[in-house]
Amino acid sequence: MESLRIYGGHYAELGRRFAGRLGLHSTDATAVLEIAAAEERGTPLSPARLSERISLSTGATTALLNRLESAGHITRAREHSDRRIVTLRSGGHIQERADEFFGPLAHRLDAAMSHYPPRFLEQVEAFMADLNATVDTHLTEQDAVTPRSLRGSAEGTP
User: Fold this and answer.
1) Count of domains forming the chain
2) Chunked in runs of 10, what are the mean pLDDT values of the chain (158 residues)?
3) Based on the domain organization, do 135 and 73 belong to the same domain?
4) What is the extent of the structural domain holding 141?
5) Are residues 38 and 11 in the same domain?
6) Is residue 50 a contact partner of residue 44, using CB atoms and an 8 Å limit?
7) Are residues 51 and 124 in the same domain?
Protein backbone atom coordinates (compact mmCIF):
# COMPACT_ATOMS: atom_id res chain seq x y z
CA MET A 1 0.00 0.00 0.00
CA GLU A 2 2.91 2.35 0.67
CA SER A 3 4.08 1.92 -2.91
CA LEU A 4 0.60 2.77 -4.19
CA ARG A 5 0.53 5.88 -1.99
CA ILE A 6 3.89 6.96 -3.43
CA TYR A 7 2.66 6.30 -6.98
CA GLY A 8 -0.44 8.38 -6.23
CA GLY A 9 1.78 11.21 -5.08
CA HIS A 10 3.83 10.99 -8.26
CA TYR A 11 0.66 10.99 -10.36
CA ALA A 12 -0.60 14.08 -8.53
CA GLU A 13 2.74 15.82 -9.10
CA LEU A 14 2.59 15.02 -12.83
CA GLY A 15 -0.89 16.54 -12.93
CA ARG A 16 0.35 19.66 -11.12
CA ARG A 17 3.23 20.04 -13.58
CA PHE A 18 0.97 19.51 -16.59
CA ALA A 19 -1.37 22.17 -15.20
CA GLY A 20 1.58 24.55 -14.90
CA ARG A 21 2.56 23.82 -18.49
CA LEU A 22 -0.96 24.76 -19.61
CA GLY A 23 -1.19 27.73 -17.26
CA LEU A 24 -4.19 26.19 -15.49
CA HIS A 25 -5.21 25.45 -11.93
CA SER A 26 -4.58 21.77 -11.17
CA THR A 27 -8.32 21.04 -10.90
CA ASP A 28 -8.89 22.53 -14.35
CA ALA A 29 -6.04 20.47 -15.81
CA THR A 30 -7.40 17.33 -14.15
CA ALA A 31 -10.78 18.02 -15.75
CA VAL A 32 -9.21 18.53 -19.19
CA LEU A 33 -7.30 15.25 -18.84
CA GLU A 34 -10.45 13.39 -17.74
CA ILE A 35 -12.34 14.78 -20.74
CA ALA A 36 -9.54 13.85 -23.17
CA ALA A 37 -9.09 10.36 -21.67
CA ALA A 38 -12.82 9.65 -21.90
CA GLU A 39 -12.77 10.71 -25.55
CA GLU A 40 -9.82 8.40 -26.21
CA ARG A 41 -11.78 5.51 -24.66
CA GLY A 42 -14.74 6.34 -26.91
CA THR A 43 -16.96 7.27 -23.95
CA PRO A 44 -17.07 11.07 -23.81
CA LEU A 45 -18.16 12.61 -20.53
CA SER A 46 -21.20 14.66 -19.68
CA PRO A 47 -20.82 17.50 -17.16
CA ALA A 48 -22.48 15.30 -14.49
CA ARG A 49 -20.02 12.42 -15.07
CA LEU A 50 -17.10 14.86 -15.00
CA SER A 51 -18.40 16.26 -11.73
CA GLU A 52 -18.33 12.74 -10.26
CA ARG A 53 -14.87 11.97 -11.68
CA ILE A 54 -13.22 15.07 -10.20
CA SER A 55 -15.34 15.29 -7.03
CA LEU A 56 -16.77 18.76 -7.55
CA SER A 57 -20.28 20.00 -6.98
CA THR A 58 -22.36 20.61 -10.10
CA GLY A 59 -22.09 24.38 -9.56
CA ALA A 60 -18.31 24.27 -9.24
CA THR A 61 -18.12 22.02 -12.31
CA THR A 62 -20.21 24.48 -14.31
CA ALA A 63 -17.86 27.34 -13.35
CA LEU A 64 -14.85 25.16 -14.26
CA LEU A 65 -16.36 24.25 -17.64
CA ASN A 66 -17.14 27.91 -18.35
CA ARG A 67 -13.47 28.78 -17.73
CA LEU A 68 -12.20 25.92 -19.88
CA GLU A 69 -14.62 26.67 -22.70
CA SER A 70 -13.78 30.40 -22.66
CA ALA A 71 -10.08 29.52 -22.91
CA GLY A 72 -10.75 27.18 -25.86
CA HIS A 73 -9.63 24.07 -23.96
CA ILE A 74 -12.99 22.27 -24.26
CA THR A 75 -16.30 22.43 -26.10
CA ARG A 76 -19.76 21.42 -25.03
CA ALA A 77 -21.77 19.73 -27.76
CA ARG A 78 -25.28 18.38 -28.09
CA GLU A 79 -24.50 15.24 -30.10
CA HIS A 80 -27.06 12.90 -28.61
CA SER A 81 -30.55 12.43 -30.04
CA ASP A 82 -31.76 13.77 -26.68
CA ARG A 83 -30.63 17.38 -27.15
CA ARG A 84 -30.64 17.93 -23.38
CA ILE A 85 -27.54 15.72 -23.07
CA VAL A 86 -24.30 17.67 -23.27
CA THR A 87 -21.08 15.97 -24.38
CA LEU A 88 -17.70 17.37 -23.39
CA ARG A 89 -14.88 17.42 -25.94
CA SER A 90 -11.31 18.58 -25.51
CA GLY A 91 -9.72 21.08 -27.84
CA GLY A 92 -7.34 19.49 -30.35
CA HIS A 93 -4.39 21.27 -28.79
CA ILE A 94 -5.04 19.54 -25.45
CA GLN A 95 -4.36 16.06 -26.82
CA GLU A 96 -1.22 17.36 -28.53
CA ARG A 97 0.01 18.99 -25.32
CA ALA A 98 -0.84 15.88 -23.26
CA ASP A 99 0.98 13.62 -25.74
CA GLU A 100 3.98 15.94 -25.69
CA PHE A 101 4.04 16.05 -21.88
CA PHE A 102 3.11 12.45 -21.02
CA GLY A 103 4.50 10.68 -24.13
CA PRO A 104 8.07 10.21 -22.82
CA LEU A 105 6.70 8.81 -19.56
CA ALA A 106 4.36 6.46 -21.46
CA HIS A 107 7.35 5.06 -23.35
CA ARG A 108 9.26 4.55 -20.08
CA LEU A 109 6.28 2.84 -18.46
CA ASP A 110 5.83 0.58 -21.49
CA ALA A 111 9.51 -0.36 -21.26
CA ALA A 112 9.23 -1.05 -17.52
CA MET A 113 6.14 -3.25 -18.00
CA SER A 114 7.65 -5.12 -20.94
CA HIS A 115 9.75 -7.13 -18.47
CA TYR A 116 6.65 -8.76 -17.01
CA PRO A 117 4.60 -11.57 -18.53
CA PRO A 118 1.12 -10.65 -19.78
CA ARG A 119 -0.56 -12.95 -17.24
CA PHE A 120 1.12 -11.10 -14.36
CA LEU A 121 0.04 -7.73 -15.76
CA GLU A 122 -3.54 -9.06 -16.05
CA GLN A 123 -3.37 -10.03 -12.37
CA VAL A 124 -2.09 -6.57 -11.42
CA GLU A 125 -4.92 -5.02 -13.45
CA ALA A 126 -7.47 -7.22 -11.64
CA PHE A 127 -5.88 -6.34 -8.27
CA MET A 128 -6.10 -2.62 -9.07
CA ALA A 129 -9.72 -3.00 -10.18
CA ASP A 130 -10.52 -4.65 -6.83
CA LEU A 131 -8.75 -1.87 -4.91
CA ASN A 132 -10.55 0.83 -6.89
CA ALA A 133 -13.94 -0.83 -6.40
CA THR A 134 -13.27 -1.10 -2.66
CA VAL A 135 -12.33 2.57 -2.36
CA ASP A 136 -15.30 3.61 -4.54
CA THR A 137 -17.65 1.67 -2.27
CA HIS A 138 -16.10 3.27 0.82
CA LEU A 139 -16.46 6.77 -0.67
CA THR A 140 -20.08 6.10 -1.65
CA GLU A 141 -20.85 4.91 1.87
CA GLN A 142 -19.19 8.01 3.32
CA ASP A 143 -21.27 10.20 1.01
CA ALA A 144 -24.39 8.51 2.32
CA VAL A 145 -23.60 9.45 5.94
CA THR A 146 -21.92 12.85 5.37
CA PRO A 147 -24.37 15.74 5.08
CA ARG A 148 -24.20 17.46 1.67
CA SER A 149 -23.49 20.78 3.38
CA LEU A 150 -20.25 19.37 4.81
CA ARG A 151 -19.21 17.87 1.46
CA GLY A 152 -19.81 21.27 -0.21
CA SER A 153 -17.63 23.00 2.40
CA ALA A 154 -14.78 20.64 1.67
CA GLU A 155 -15.04 21.59 -2.01
CA GLY A 156 -14.93 25.27 -1.22
CA THR A 157 -18.59 25.83 -2.12
CA PRO A 158 -21.40 26.91 0.18
Assistant:
1) 2
2) 94 93 92 93 93 92 95 88 84 89 96 97 96 92 75 49
3) no
4) 116-158
5) yes
6) no
7) no
